[in-house]
Specification:
Blueprint (H helix, E strand, L loop, with lengths): L23 H13 L5 E5 L7 H15 L4 E5 L14 E5 L2 E6 L1 H10 L10 H9 L6 H19 L2 H15 L16 H18 L1 H22 L10 H40 L5 H31 L5 H26 L5 H19 L11 H7 L3 H14 L21 H8 L7 H31 L1
Parallel strand pairs: 1-2
Antiparallel strand pairs: 3-4
Helix pairs in contact: 1-2, 7-10, 8-9, 8-10, 9-10, 9-11, 9-12, 9-14, 10-11, 10-16, 11-12, 11-14, 11-16, 12-14, 14-15, 14-16
InterPro entries: ABC2_TM, ABC_transporter-like_ATP-bd, ABCG_dom, ABCG_transporters
Protein name: ATP-binding cassette sub-family G member 5
Family: Belongs to the ABC transporter superfamily. ABCG family. Eye pigment precursor importer (TC 3.A.1.204) subfamily.
Length: 477
Amino acid sequence: MAELSLSHVAHSVIGGRVFPGISGGERRRVSIACQLLQDPRVILLDEPTTGLDSMTANQIVVLLAQLAQRNRIVIVTIHQPRSELFKVFSRIAIMSRGELVFCGQPEEMVDFFSQCGYECPEYCNPFDIYVDFTSVDTRSSEREAATFNRMHEITSSYQGSAIYHSMLGKIVQSLQQEDKPAIPFKSKESPSGSAKLEVLLRRTVRNLSRDRMGVLMRLSQNLIYGLFVAFFVMRLDNDVSKGAVQDRIGIIYQSIGASPYTGMLNAVALFPALRAISDQESQDGLYSKWQMFLAYIFHILPLSILAIIVFSSFLYWTVGMHPDTIRFLCFTAVVLVPHIIGELLTVVLLGVVQDPYMVNTGVALLNIAGILVGSGFLRSTQQMPEVFQWLSYLTFQKYSCELLIVTEFHGLEFTCNTTKPLPGACLITHGNQIIDEGYPGALSRYTQDFLLLYSFLPVLLLLGMISFKIRDKLVRH
């Protein structure tokens, strides 16, 4: 940053089309700086001054000339440079119609064109004049033929000149050397994986902190959903005839079924832009794509935990679920996992599928399938075909629902209005009946279900690393 005079904007947002940031020249210097991170000895820049005003373009070219003086080879394609830059370049090559018309030092170029009968008038830009002399005008067949012959004559004169033969001689002499010194294209030294991950995490967190509206939405979307649920349920009742069982199961269903969607929406909204940046920077060899994946996952964890705590604190106590602090903490810990899995699974699939809308649809369908097979709400797991019973063990919804059913219904006593009872409603008097009938053995599997539920996170993390390593290879090829 010091080498490219960017220290004064170190803490500024780069910006883009949506909101302003640093200037166009500074943005171009940032692009060059990214390429200099690995200290390359050969730098090729394609029209680095295009779209910049003349003063900024001049600053960029002078900067590149300074880089060339620091043991680097800088090759630049450029259009309409200022005349002041004529002597900045060590060598100038003019090409036309795929042919090398001239290549030599600036002073040699002036002498060569003068000898060919094409003088550069005083106060004129040599670049513009000589490019005009060597360009082919295609506005009419006569002009095209005339200008093509002129270009061909200049090319022939160059190929017969001392400048051209001197260059060929140096090439032949270089090729005949037995021990040619190798030019290191890039520095082999690189920070450790943990150091790269630290930088990526710091950058991701910093960008996130600047997007205050995004942070607010991430923290509040679950809470807003909780408001809808609380509005419809209002307050849980212990009277079975008033929906005590149905309302509780409905809240559990909504908590497990909806939380993956909020995580998925976050990933679809935020991660594709980061993925595009990581594709470019990993191609430059700065880091691997899986390191960006890990940095993103680590940075969402605190916000996800906070968002679910806010959601659970509001919903749990507002609707009047089992009034026990330990059970509340268990409820929060269980609901957290589907939320993180929703975002984690989306990011994993975005590693191998380019279209975020396709990933959005895929994750939604997987979540619906998991709810149908694993929750036991639509149909009791014991009544399902055996193949679906086995598949239910692969869904996080199975363990989440069992845990929340036990957390809410264990030890809960129900009452029943005997004056206007629902048919069969008064048969349920204790919460353990719900557990025994719908989820036999769930109480004894409580700790095991917790461990199995949280095991989905490292498994998906590992799959994500594999997914982005595959993406690394696909993009390179």
